[in-house]
Write the structure tokens for this entry.
Amino acid sequence: MDTSLADTLVGRVLDGRYRIQERIARGGMATVYRALDTRLDRLVAVKVMHSTLAEDPEFVSKFTREAKSAARLSHPNVVAVFDQGSDNGVVFLVMEYVDGATLRDLIRERGRLSPRQSLDVIAPVLSALDAAHRAGIVHRDIKPENVLISSEGRVKVADFGLARAIAASHLTATTGLLIGTAAYLAPEQIEHGHADARTDLYAAGIVLYELLTGRPPYEAATPMAVVFKHVHETVPAPSLVRPEVSKPLDALVLDATRRDPEERPPSADALLEQLEAVSRTLAPEPLDLTQQTQVLHQHHTTVLRTEPPASGPAKTLVAPPVWPPAPVPSRPAPPAGRPRKQTSWWRGWRLAVLLLLAATVAAGAIGAYLGLSERGGGNGSTSGAPATSAAAATSAAAPTTAPLQNFVNLSQDAATQLGNQFNLNVVVDPTPVFSDTVAAGNVVSQSPPFTEGQSVQAGSTVTLTMSKGAETFPIPAAALVGQTPDQATALLTAAHLTLGKQSTDYSDTVAAGAIIKVTTDATVALPAGSPVDVDVSKGPTPIAVPDESGKTRTAALADLTTALFTKVTVTFVFSDTVASGHVVSQTPKPKALAQPTDALVLNVSKGPELFAVPTLKGLSAEAAESKLVAMGFKYHTQRLPNGPGNVLTTIPSPGSMQPRGTVITLEIF
């Protein structure tokens, strides 16, 4: 099918510079074209985002930032980003044009690779990731489709930062991104949407598994079923599918794909060092790969469906890799007709025979010399031949040397294989030691210690000390209950642990401020310095205060005692509205939450406040009325006819105690 005939972008010049020549791949998020940069006269790859993404302003903004970040990344195993832009709604990325195929094509053509070939492919991927991580860039979508192999055999990683831009858009690639990469998603990406350098290592470990076995570790009817397996299952060892895969290779895959990111290697560089140690145990071999499929130029974040040519000859896609294989120490070539490797007993017999021959020749030479001397003849030249033969024999019998190897961090099996390869006698110290940095079962140290370029006598013994993992310490859970956080800190420090998160909760049995329980699993011993989480008491569970308004003092106290309140105080107040002996108000207010030990106050009425009726005799009616109103009394006036208009007397009588509002009768004469 000629895609260029149906594609409206073919022949168009983007941004006045990039002439689109041919569509070479199409995926769920973008289409990739081969184009000519008319300004620099060079071929480039142009990735054009699909319209659904190009119409999302948030994606375009994020895409621009990520493209700028990726453009600063320069590494021989990274597809270079040259430019980014937008032309009449066409959002595009301009990248290095790689004439080759994807790693997915290689797997489809060859199936599984040999262990040596698998490591030679994944090593430059880790090198690219290490450079990106050091620059603060996380790929987030490592998979065979994003690993390219040029026609010269160079391995390159594409699409740095693009996955992050897509994930940040409103679309979130709910179907495209997740389904397209389900086989390589790390558990933390699935559960929390979180990705860091260790997330890329997980995906690289899955790719290595697929290279070794020819298939991903999880296969299911639906992508969501695969996602479930990533979260809830541990990646199996490749040797379960392919028994010839060695234990060090198993360990390499399993370390990279731990479900907990904290248990994975801390960096791509650390995983690469582990890979190189395993690589030294494998014999080098060329990739020597050919494929019968069209050369593809793919730089995408989802599985791009390639379109095979309608006709034409098959094309060789991959040449032997340009990176050098692990060095193999040079040894003297064995004489023709003699085996290269000899057993130790044969070397011993050969040495003994040579020494005996040398001694015999030397003795004959001395005897001949003495005989000639007694006859007074000769000038010593007759002794030269045997002496030379003896020196040659001694030189030939000298022990050979072997390069000392670095066994640290290798498993016992890998260390033994490495020792055998270089004619070193590996001995394991029967007493393993704790190590915070080396996994249990791997080598912590060796004697003699490794020095770059150092050689030792062939057959020399190297003693290995093995790790039994980090030393762990039990949690003193019972001793922490009832202690304050400060007291718990001291106890945990003595136990080589630290106080972790302090949650709070109510407790009817543990005093406020003291530890109720340890929430970290106390049945598991922890490495030194590990945090221990606890619950701290806020005191007893609060109770709703009952409403005692209007009740008698006796009834209110009985109610509060039944509700378990232990601190109740009664105060007496005047009240014009509540009868004496009844509750006027309370603190806290009704229905408020309070601890049983909190102080409660009942305000009980002692009736209205009383005031003395003033003496008003002789005052004018107006003056008497004003005085009564000012004191809170009311008044009623009774006048006798023909009087001067002054107060004669009051009812109630002056001096009697009356509440506010009482009506005072004024008799005016």
User: Anything to note?
Assistant: The chain has a mean pLDDT of 80.
